[in-house]
């Protein structure tokens, strides 16, 4: 996979409505030679999910709102302009304060985008939500996300 010039206009990019918010792909791994992905995320103010580990590193850069990230026993409060980088395999969870937060999410490789697309597919398959939790746990495991 080779890197190539890629432009995404404001408001453009594939939007993936997952459980915790809408992730708009601004630069996919296919645009960066597989090095990283960039998402613009509108995070919903929901209770935090259980801590999890992902096999990709990530950086959150907050644009609007406030969010709290807990990682390896430390709590970080992000306000606009703050950035937090988490190495791969660090146990973490996060939540947005009401009314939500808007951020840029950078992730190494292509796995975050694959996870988001798989979550969207699972949500589409289970609109009644009865089997959603086991399905989402299966999607997480298939994408090497480990809940701790």
UniProtKB/TrEMBL annotation:
Classification via Pfam families: Cupin_2
InterPro entries on file: Cupin_2, RmlC-like_jellyroll, RmlC_Cupin_sf
Superkingdom classification of source: Bacteria
SUPFAM superfamilies given in the database record: RmlC-like cupins
Protein name: Quercetin dioxygenase-like cupin family protein
Domain (Cupin type-2) ranges: 50-97
Molecular function GO terms recorded: dioxygenase activity
Keyword Oxidoreductase: yes
Keyword terms, alphabetized: Dioxygenase, Oxidoreductase
Organism: Nocardiopsis aegyptia
């Amino acid at each position: 996979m080779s890197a190539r010039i890629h432009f995404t206009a404001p408001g453009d990019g594939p939007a993936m409505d997952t459980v915790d918010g809408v992730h708009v792909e601004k630069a996919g791994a296919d645009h960066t030679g597989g090095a990283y992905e960039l998402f613009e995320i509108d995070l919903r103010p929901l209770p935090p999910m259980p801590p999890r580990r992902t096999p990709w590193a990530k950086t959150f850069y907050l644009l609007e709102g406030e969010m709290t990230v807990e990682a390896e026993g430390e709590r970080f409060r992000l306000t606009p302009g703050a950035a937090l980088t988490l190495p791969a395999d660090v146990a973490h969870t996060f939540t947005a304060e009401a009314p939500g937060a808007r951020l840029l999410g950078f992730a190494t490789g292509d796995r975050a985008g694959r996870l988001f697309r798989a979550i969207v597919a699972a949500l589409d398959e289970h609109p009644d939500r009865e089997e959603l939790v086991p399905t989402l746990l299966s999607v997480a495991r298939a994408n090497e996300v480990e809940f701790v």
